[in-house]
């Protein structure tokens, strides 16, 4: 969030803390702790039915996710809006017509990722940015400091939205039957919408903005409209879905889709160091999102920069387009091949997972418990990944269980030499010293867990779509 | 709940359903599903820190549970109040002075349990009854139909209380340090209170009613007072507890105490059959608690009476006092020894528990998943327990995990011949036919789980207190 008048800035917070990692690892307690499944519990149940059947529905029939509450939004308007986004984004916005949405990835001048979000071009000079609080803050800062002719409005997640509600509802309709349900729900003929293009349709008597999208490895749809019409549209979708096996998805299922889908959300923004970002840190609040990072996991460094990531680490290497002038371009162009990690999925060794579970019985030692389906608890989480010879080769971040795959999976950033599918690595599960002081981390001991490198996304069906979202 | 004007009665519901068990097993969906941990989520978090450390605190230091929201209450006043309670209770209320609380267990004329609750004698003719919706309904029905000179007021759990709040807050302070915290929190000298006696003290500037109690195997205290003073009293307790390792306990921990403590809450009330209870069923609502029983588990009978229990089955055999005239007395006196089951704890075989967990990996078969720490999902749940020769010897009801014991435990009612500690039995985990239609029951297969009979309560420290609560 932006610093309010008289409020402490992020820079002041950093100056006060002798060891920022120590602080983020032990003392921050943001509302988005425990990997966020608790954040919106008052609005969306963790499970509508049970998360196992909901995960299955997402793969086998269809699921309706409610995204109305957890993602921050921004409306960016004005003659300079596109120019600002092009300055921020490492990817090209060249063909950004008003019937499209785009992913937007923003970096620091040193080429470290700040965040990624989805942008709709609603009108020629009107853009809607969804998700990534750090990136929205960065866009706003640049708009204000860079002299762009734009206006900005922000809409915070429901739990801390001053209005107690949102501008827009947002649903995600996914799964092999999503298309049929969409066609049945739309009044009149349903339009054919190319991937990542938008259209306007009528559902339940309401005008709905549709983005043709994909999350579960099938073409799906993101549907949004005025918040007040949420229930009408949901009812119409649920009714249309009845004969197609549609389930509503709770937050446990929603936040566990990434293990199959391969998206690494919310990296630590690389903004805490460097004189060139001091202005930005003084502009940011000392109580906001960036001030409440919640590092967790077995990797513990005394240097916050060891947690910064580049677009390559998150699997965005191929979308960087050096055809336009953007923040971080020079640094990214100069980054040697050897420093570009690769995003992979790790498939955890079943015997070792069973050992973690089994440690809960008897007198110990107890290893860090695996909550199902979302097992990571840091935000972000960094678990050490080592080659069999003991050398550190990367970090495992989001870990959890997929009932569809029947595996414990994690998304990791590895040195290219270890990133080939089939490579055997060892990750350290659990934190040193019995665990951090974070109240949600129970006392535990560490365990070396064997894992096999696999592609990200892990689900075969998702891999087909992986490039299509970014033009 | 009592039937409202024009509302369908429980009897009408029963007449409509051809198979009541089939209905309760598949189609009811009450707010107390999933063993209640979701019921009060808007008021009490599932975890304040993490349930493993909270379970530990309950055994090793101290824990503060918030019971303000989930239990129904009744105020029973008038010259005939004690006489009514004596008519209901199978246990003696002979020494019920105004500085005491008592457990009250009520049965049908056939000697089947309806429910049990705690009763405070607030004044000579004023009694406060806490918990057990079916028992409170039964008390009210008898008051109205039996011509007792009493008045009755009801206060429902917060989630469906018309006032949106309660009469009283209620805290449970437990654990080896509970006494120290209590003494530190009380203004002035803390009184010595004998077990299950009450006193009035001042905490946080507020007058508080204290019941000396025990739940975690240590003497603890139940504290109550006007709902408006809840936050003041909680703050004072939390402050006093800081140096004594006090944790606040979430609902996951709260509802998992029974596996060590040995209380079998909320049996199916034995009211659905018998001409002598037809009046009662016509008085009860067809939408209330009794109409929304949620049978679950591997035991499936076509006769609802197979789910009825006697006081012996729940471990209340020793409290029955045939020194007064109460409903069900004749039936209980006549019940042959061979039909009196014994309450035990079952300690599940670790290899078989690991097999259930392991079934989540690979392509199947998948067994019914064990949610931690509360694994039972029926309300009530009945899992078949068989002797090694295959004969049915009883039912396992509430199952879950204790981090203190490092075991998967369940509370069961077994034939006396199989109830000796050390006896090996086999319970069937999971439902026939892939699972009921209940949305929270995922598709699964059944597994035979070996288990060892142990005393109930399981925790040694609790066993010492087990008789003391009932006079």
Automatic annotation (TrEMBL), chains A, B:
This is Glycine cleavage T protein (Aminomethyl transferase). Pfam families: GCV_T. One of its GO terms (molecular function) is transferase activity. It comes from the Bacteria. Residues 47-263 form the GCVT N-terminal domain. InterPro entries: GcvT/YgfZ/DmdA, GCVT_N, TrmE/GcvT-like. PANTHER family: AMINOMETHYLTRANSFERASE, AMINOMETHYLTRANSFERASE, MITOCHONDRIAL. GO terms for cellular component: cytosol. Substrate binds at residue 222. Keywords: Transferase.
């Amino acid at each position: 969030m932006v610093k309010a008048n008289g409020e402490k800035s992020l820079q002041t917070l950093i100056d006060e803390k002798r060891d920022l990692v120590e602080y983020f690892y032990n003392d921050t307690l943001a509302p988005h702790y425990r990997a966020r499944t608790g954040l919106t519990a008052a609005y969306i149940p963790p499970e509508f039915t049970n998360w196992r059947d909901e995960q299955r529905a997402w793969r086998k029939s269809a699921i309706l996710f409610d995204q109305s509450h957890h993602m921050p939004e921004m409306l960016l308007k004005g003659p300079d809006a596109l120019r600002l986004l092009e300055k921020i984004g490492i990817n090209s916005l060249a063909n950004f017509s008003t019937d499209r949405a785009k992913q937007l990835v923003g970096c620091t001048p040193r080429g470290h990722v700040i965040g990624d979000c989805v942008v709709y071009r609603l009108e020629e000079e009107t853009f809607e940015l969804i998700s990534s609080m750090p990136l929205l803050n960065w866009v706003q800062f640049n708009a204000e400091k860079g002299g762009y002719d734009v206006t900005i409005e922000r809409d915070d997640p429901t739990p801390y939205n001053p209005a107690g509600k949102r501008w827009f509802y947002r649903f995600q309709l996914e799964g092999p039957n999503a298309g049929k349900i969409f066609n049945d729900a739309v009044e009149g003929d349903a339009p054919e919408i190319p991937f990542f293009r938008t259209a306007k349709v009528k559902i339940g008597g309401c005008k709905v903005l549709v983005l043709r999208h994909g999350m579960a490895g099938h073409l799906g749809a993101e549907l949004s409209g005025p918040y007040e019409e949420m229930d009408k549209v949901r009812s119409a979708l649920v009714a249309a879905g009845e004969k197609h096996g549609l389930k509503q998805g709770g937050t446990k299922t929603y936040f566990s889709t990434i293990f199959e889908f391969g998206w690494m959300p919310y990296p630590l923004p690389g903004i805490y160091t460097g004189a060139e970002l001091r202005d930005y840190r003084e502009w940011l609040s000392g109580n906001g999102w960036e001030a409440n990072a919640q590092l967790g996991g077995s990797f513990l460094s005394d240097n916050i920069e060891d947690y910064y990531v580049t677009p390559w680490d998150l699997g965005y290497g191929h979308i960087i387009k050096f055809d336009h002038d953007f923040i971080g371009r020079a640094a990214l162009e100069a980054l040697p091949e050897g420093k570009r990690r690769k995003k992979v999925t790790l498939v955890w060794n079943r015997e070792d997972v069973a050992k973690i579970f089994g440690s809960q019985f008897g007198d110990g030692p107890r290893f860090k418990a695996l909550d199902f389906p979302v097992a990571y608890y840091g935000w972000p989480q960094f678990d050490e990944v080592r080659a069999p010879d003991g050398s550190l080769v990367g970090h495992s971040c989001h870990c959890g269980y997929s009932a569809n795959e029947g595996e414990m999976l994690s998304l990791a950033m590895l040195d290219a030499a270890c990133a080939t599918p089939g490579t055997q690595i060892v990750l350290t599960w659990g934190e040193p010293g019995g665990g951090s002081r974070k109240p949600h981390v129970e006392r535990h001991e560490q365990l070396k867990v064997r894992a096999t490198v696999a592609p990200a996304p892990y689900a075969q069906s998702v891999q087909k779509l992986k490039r299509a979202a970014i033009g």
